[in-house]
């Protein structure tokens, strides 16, 4: 900025290839062209090339640039040759410019420079620097700002905050970044986020410092017991352990559109006995007052969480950490509706690449190649709330592509489009006297001012080493991610709150049954025994609601049966099964044997368009595609009839079914017979080791030189309302099956060709 130089910016990730740096092929009206990428553009136009995240790139990608850095020479794919300015000028004295052009020689500007940014790898994780590459740079070591300068910055950020408190917070941050702390295995404290935290403190001077520190540095989730004591002793030393004596914000009182600044909402939050109003960014839809939703039942702990989220939303993007099934997505949806945001859900999966996040290739009808912006980019331009679901699953190198979007609200895409922060875009427009149209022709777009990111994640595995090869055990919340968000933890509900929730959402559930269930889960969640805790995770709030919906429909059913099904107790190891049975007897839940069970007849009858299995009946479906209804040879027997009656109960509640059983017990037969009786057309999908998320949804094929996508059985079933049977569901990689979760839960999914399924 000071030297008024133009910049080419690349965020390196594990997906960066040579073509991203040198030249990429594109097809225009049937001919392949080479289009210069950042390194070549910077060299020929004399710009500064910024390479961010050297430690993220694969080892053999960056040496492509070695010769360009050393001698300013590079052979390009399209036959041109970049040559250093001095040699080119010497040749110019002997030959004409036309001759040099016919030899395809291009001059590298003498203004071309490369600035690479990276972090030291033995301390952090990543690929170590390649020595030949390192020798071509002048290295500088950049440190944290000195304490005094940092203090002055923070004083200006929070003028209403007592000076003593500011210095205590900063001392804490510097202590946690010191060498001694990292020897204890504590990740670095995100010092840059202190400024955002002080903006919050400035509006809420009565907020306790301990709560604030937990949002910046959620040590209770990341660290084990030793880490806790270490951090709390530091907190204690700087007198920041004041969480008990000061009240947390209790609830959001009202939300209204702001008159002062456009695109914002006035939010009033009650803290202790005061009500404080402040402005936060808001979406374009109509705002909805708190507690007015029919599907969201407010509990004291959730309303406190929403109030805290509002505070953080004032300054920065958020991340919600919570175990599976504890209501993260529901809270996110409620938060978005309160502020009038449209939601853009993006399900993250393990082998997602940077391209899946930002832009994908596709072909136009005439066979030209083009780039399609991903949902994430569209959300940024339109000012939606982007929900990154499952941030703990993605490879960390891929997420780094977003760090610039999260920190500076800027983004460079593969096709050369640049997204700029709203106010930078406006100043640029003013300086150049350009219209929006002219800037868009130069492919520069603004990021909408109210765009925000809300990430959802499962808690990091405490004590898992960061280098452990097992992906599921990876400690994902490292120093780099700590700087990107403010963190909020979703705690499991208290017993009384969960009771209220269940009665609100499943009103007819028998009281006694619900109480027994909650007693059981409460005792399982409280134990220190790891086997019992893993059982508790399969009785999450989501599962409890599912059980209660079924009990309110069929009150005479046994609870033990429902719990055993939810925990899949038949497939548990013997220790866990014994501990589950013990907990069931302790909570006085007995499996009542049905005295008439032996004689009870299980028959299936179809009379006048009504199917009855056992005691459950339902009208038969009349399909318009008869040939898709299965028809199999099936001999009725009591055991399979019981299974089908059970399936029908859940099917009528609108649940999705999972059949688990050993090989050869007749799972396929039961499903086909079930659909045959119901007269439902089915679509059939078989998963295997090589199933990817793309093949689940679309089958690409080439017709007349154009890539067309054909719907997979999954998409057809969604469109026509057929039943989708997924066989061998356990054979596919988990990241594939977790995509189905979003579809099953919320009825939303984005297909590879840019279409989307909505509920």
TrEMBL record:
InterPro entries: ATPase_dyneun-rel_AAA, P-loop_NTPase, VWA8. Residues 2-137, 317-465, 656-757 form the ATPase dynein-related AAA domain. Gene3D superfamilies: P-loop containing nucleotide triphosphate hydrolases. Pfam families: AAA_5. It comes from the Eukaryota. PANTHER family: VON WILLEBRAND FACTOR A DOMAIN-CONTAINING PROTEIN 8. This is ATPase dynein-related AAA domain-containing protein. It comes from Characodon lateralis.
């Amino acid at each position: 900025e000071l030297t008024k130089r133009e910049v080419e910016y690349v965020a390196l990730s594990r997906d960066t290839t040579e073509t991203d740096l040198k030249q990429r092929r594109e097809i225009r009206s049937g001919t392949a062209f080479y289009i210069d990428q950042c390194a070549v553009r910077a060299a020929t136009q004399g710009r500064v090339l910024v390479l961010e995240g050297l430690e993220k790139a694969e080892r053999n990608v960056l040496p492509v640039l070695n010769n360009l850095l050393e001698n300013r020479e590079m052979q390009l794919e399209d036959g041109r040759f970049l040559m250093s300015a001095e040699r080119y000028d010497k040749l110019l004295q002997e030959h004409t410019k036309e001759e040099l052009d016919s030899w395809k020689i291009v001059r590298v500007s003498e203004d071309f420079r490369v600035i690479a940014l990276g972090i030291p790898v033995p301390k952090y994780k990543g690929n170590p620097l390649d020595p030949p590459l390192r020798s071509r740079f002048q290295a500088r070591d950049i440190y944290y700002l000195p304490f005094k300068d940092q203090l002055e910055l923070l004083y200006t950020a929070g003028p209403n905050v007592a000076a003593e408190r500011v210095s205590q917070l900063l001392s804490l941050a510097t202590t946690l970044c010191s060498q001694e702390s990292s020897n204890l295995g504590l990740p670095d404290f995100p010092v840059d986020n202190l400024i955002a935290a002080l903006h919050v403190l400035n509006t809420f001077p009565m907020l306790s410092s301990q709560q604030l520190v937990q949002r910046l540095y959620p040590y209770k989730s990341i660290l084990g017991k030793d880490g806790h004591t270490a951090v709390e002793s530091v907190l204690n030393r700087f007198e920041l352990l004041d969480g008990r004596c000061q009240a947390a914000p209790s609830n959001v009182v009202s939300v209204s559109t702001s008159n002062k600044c456009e695109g914002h909402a006035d939010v009033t939050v009650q803290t202790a006995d005061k009500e404080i109003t402040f402005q936060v960014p808001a979406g374009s839809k109509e705002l909805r007052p708190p507690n007015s939703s029919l599907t969201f039942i407010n509990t004291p702990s959730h309303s406190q969480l929403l109030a805290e989220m509002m505070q953080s939303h004032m300054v920065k993007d958020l991340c919600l950490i919570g175990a599976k099934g504890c209501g993260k997505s529901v809270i996110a949806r409620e938060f978005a509706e309160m502020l009038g945001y449209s939601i853009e859900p993006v399900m993250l999966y393990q082998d997602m690449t940077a391209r899946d996040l930002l832009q994908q290739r596709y072909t136009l009808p005439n066979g030209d190649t083009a780039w399609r912006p991903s949902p994430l980019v569209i959300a940024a331009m339109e000012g939606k709330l982007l929900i990154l679901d499952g941030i703990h699953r993605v490879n960390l190198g891929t997420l780094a592509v977003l760090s610039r979007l999260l920190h500076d609200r800027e983004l460079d895409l593969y096709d050369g489009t640049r997204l700029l922060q709203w106010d930078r875009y406006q100043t640029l427009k003013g300086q150049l006297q350009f219209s929006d149209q002219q800037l868009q022709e130069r492919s520069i777009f603004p990021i909408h001012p109210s765009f925000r990111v809300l990430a959802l994640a499962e808690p990091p595995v405490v004590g898992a080493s960061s280098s452990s090869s097992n992906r599921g055990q990876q400690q994902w919340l490292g120093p780099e991610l700590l700087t990107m968000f403010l963190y909020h933890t979703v705690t499991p509900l208290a017993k009384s709150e969960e009771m209220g929730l269940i009665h609100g959402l499943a009103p007819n559930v028998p009281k006694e049954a619900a109480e027994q269930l909650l007693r059981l889960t409460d005792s399982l969640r409280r134990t220190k025994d790891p086997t019992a805790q893993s059982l508790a995770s399969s009785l999450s709030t989501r599962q409890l609601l599912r059980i209660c919906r079924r009990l309110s429909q069929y009150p005479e059913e046994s609870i033990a049966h429902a719990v055993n099904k939810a925990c899949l107790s038949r497939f548990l190891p013997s220790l866990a099964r014994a501990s589950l049975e013990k907990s069931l007897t302790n909570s006085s839940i007995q499996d009542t044997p049905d005295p008439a069970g032996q004689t009870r007849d299980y028959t299936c009858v179809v009379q006048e368009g009504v199917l009855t299995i056992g005691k459950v009946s339902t009208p038969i479906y009349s399909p318009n595609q008869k040939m898709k209804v299965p028809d199999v040879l099936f001999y009725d027997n009591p055991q399979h009839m019981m299974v089908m009656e059970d399936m029908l109960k859940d099917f009528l509640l609108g649940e999705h079914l999972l059949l688990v059983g050993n090989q050869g017990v007749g799972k396929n037969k039961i499903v086909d017979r079930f659909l045959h009786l119901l007269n439902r057309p089915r679509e059939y999908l078989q998963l295997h080791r090589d199933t990817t998320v793309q093949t689940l949804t679309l089958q690409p094929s080439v017709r007349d030189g154009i890539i067309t996508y054909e719907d997979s059985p999954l998409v057809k079933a969604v469109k026509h309302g057929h039943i989708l049977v997924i066989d061998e569901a356990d054979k596919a990689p988990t990241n594939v099956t977790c995509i189905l979760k979003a579809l099953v839960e919320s009825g939303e999914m984005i297909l590879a060709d840019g279409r989307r399924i909505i509920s």
